Amino acid sequence: EEMLSRKNKGIKQESPRLFFIQLGPQAKQQSFLLLEQFRKARLSVASSLSKDSIKNQLKHAAQLGVSHSIILGQKEAIDNTVIVRDMDTGMQEIVPQEKLLDYLKKKKKNK
């Protein structure tokens, strides 16, 4: 609804570059903190706070055409890490949460 009103007002809606996937209650809670960091860093991130499976969330990310998905599951929430998945190659890297913004900024420069 908000996107429609923005289109009608001529406000350009930037397509997200990243898709944030969270799995499980602890991961969901941590995801809010990370999403706030992305917002402050002006990174365009889409997310689904539903209880969809990882498969469905990755499918949604592919439909949006994002370059990377950030996956935060229960294990990652405990370890304070995330999995960054390149949506073109399927390659995945484990990144500490405190280094995620720097990691993503480097990825953006390399593209």
TrEMBL record:
Residues 33-107 form the Anticodon-binding domain. Signal peptide: none annotated. InterPro entries: Anticodon-bd (IPR004154), Anticodon-bd_dom_sf (IPR036621). It holds the Pfam family HGTP_anticodon. The keyword Ligase applies. Keywords: Aminoacyl-tRNA synthetase, Ligase. This is Anticodon-binding domain-containing protein. It comes from Candidatus Niyogibacteria bacterium CG10_big_fil_rev_8_21_14_0_10_46_36.
